[in-house]
Amino acid sequence: MNHSQAQFNSQPESTNRIIRIFDTTLRDGEQSPGATLRPEQKIVLARQLAKLGVDIIEPGFPVSSPGEFAAVQQISRELQGVEIVGFARAIKGDIDAAVRSTMDAARRRLHLFISSSDIHLDFQLKKSREEVLEIARQMVAYGKQFVDEIEFSPMDASRTGRDFVIEMVEAVIAEGATVINLPDTLGYALPEEYGNLFRTVRAGARGADKVQFSAHCHNDLGLAVANSLAAIQAGANQVEVTINGIGERAGNCSLEELVMAIETRKSAIGAETGIVMSEIYETSRMVSRTMNFPIAYNKPIVGRNAFQHESGIHQDGLLKNRNTYEIMDPEAMGIPRSMIVLGKHSGRHAIKHRLADFGIELTDDQLLDVYNRFKEKADEMKIVPDDVLVRLASESTATQHDPYTLIDLQVLAGTQRSRIASVTIRERDSQEERTLTGTGTGPLEAVIHCLQQAIPVSAEFEDLEIHSLSTGEDAHGEANVSIVYNNQRYTGTAVHNDIILAAAQAYVGACNQMLMSIQDTDSEENTEQLA
Ligand code: KIV
Ligand code: ZN
């Protein structure tokens, strides 16, 4: 064990508690504005959640629509290795739908909720505490006739008087509830308060020692992960989370952030999960794409910048030893490693290192020349993508490194007919220029179709993201394209005030990156496979 690890690993791992991961991306996550899923999309995502190793999946709200019912039913039939939850208000019709839709699951649970805070009772339910208590009792007893595992949630528990939470929890345990979830529905609690809620209820409610406790945190104050950790430390052994922290308003506790906090600090926390780390990134990308929900660049774990370092001092440290400025290994989470982002703070060492990744060796003079021109580019672009760097190196060495160069692009847009594009591409080895045309339902699709013919690589087009970098009529846009070849992801980035051109350059950049890295590892064998 090295010095930095020793600092954190003071406890043998065998004493760690196992925390069960209850994924509600497809239920609470889907309540995120604009993130609605079709039933078949839910099924595909549920398969990925199972691959990720979550313990429990809440696939939807069965009573809400026939499509939702069918999705929960199919997921119950198909995913026999995961516990499936039927979600229901404390209403017979909801419970019946939840029970029927999960009938074929190998392991299932009924999740019932009713509000407990005075503000919800007075203004929303317009019922007294006694009435709500009675409904909770009766509905748990009703559900228990059909399902053994019953989770009960007093909604808005963190804003409910402690005595009433205890009274309600005692009542539902007496009727057969087996899991008590204490939601911080509005993301209002502070970590210490939320932890104390669990301590108080676990100590005060009769029967609490026979049930499991669960945390369910929303992120309105950015405290969902901290609050979930506080609950774990106060005895909760289940956490309810969503991928990318997606969910109502500011979202729910993010699975990847919580799991990585537990994983990275497992000795300090004394807990671990069964999540398959290598599936984290893929799951995050899939949820983002399917729900049309972009991930903030600086989002912990899965954001584009989460493992990228721009400061020259940090880059220098990283090149000497990764642990100097990284606490997690992105590759263990399936995140492509490109830890160094080249920008105006980068030094010559980092540039040399990055070019060497593409098999480009420079003399000291050439390096100085690239460096000087790189600095100008960095002022203009903020981040200098790999394909731009390689182009700078080509200019210094008078050797063209990019396998393909985009020479010209034209697009005909409109409203009625297919969009038409034409691109001219030069191939490095033959120096041949070829012009191809293509059509698409939009101008970008037409351009990508041309480029796919012009650069015949058998990579799968994975994603295109476009962001505006400024405002006004001449705003610059940034395009990021990712392609996948042999399970490996390659990305290209370009900035231009013509966003279609930026997307085309980014696509060519991604193909070049892929071709150069393949050439580097095994040139002959791979050229055959590519055409
Ligand atoms: O936020 C919440 O209170 C919920 C419950 C209904 C579990 O999503
Ligand atoms: Zn919620």
UniProtKB/TrEMBL annotation:
Its EC number is 2.3.3.13. GO terms for molecular function: 2-isopropylmalate synthase activity; metal ion binding. It comes from the Bacteria. InterPro entries: 2-IPM_HCS-like, 2-isopropylmalate_synth_dimer, AIPM/Hcit_synth_CS, Aldolase_TIM, LeuA/HCS_post-cat, LeuA_allosteric_dom_sf, LeuA_bact_synth, PYR_CT. Residues 19-281 form the Pyruvate carboxyltransferase domain. The keyword Metal-binding applies. Keywords: Acyltransferase, Amino-acid biosynthesis, Branched-chain amino acid biosynthesis, Leucine biosynthesis, Manganese, Metal-binding, Transferase. Pathway: Amino-acid biosynthesis; L-leucine biosynthesis; L-leucine from 3-methyl-2-oxobutanoate: step 1/4. Pfam families: HCS_D2, HMGL-like, LeuA_dimer. SMART domains: LeuA_dimer. Belongs to the alpha-IPM synthase/homocitrate synthase family. LeuA type 1 subfamily. It is an enzyme of class 2 (transferase). NCBIfam families: leuA_bact, PRK00915.1-3. One of its GO terms (biological process) is L-leucine biosynthetic process. This is 2-isopropylmalate synthase. It comes from Paenibacillus albus. Coiled coil: none annotated.
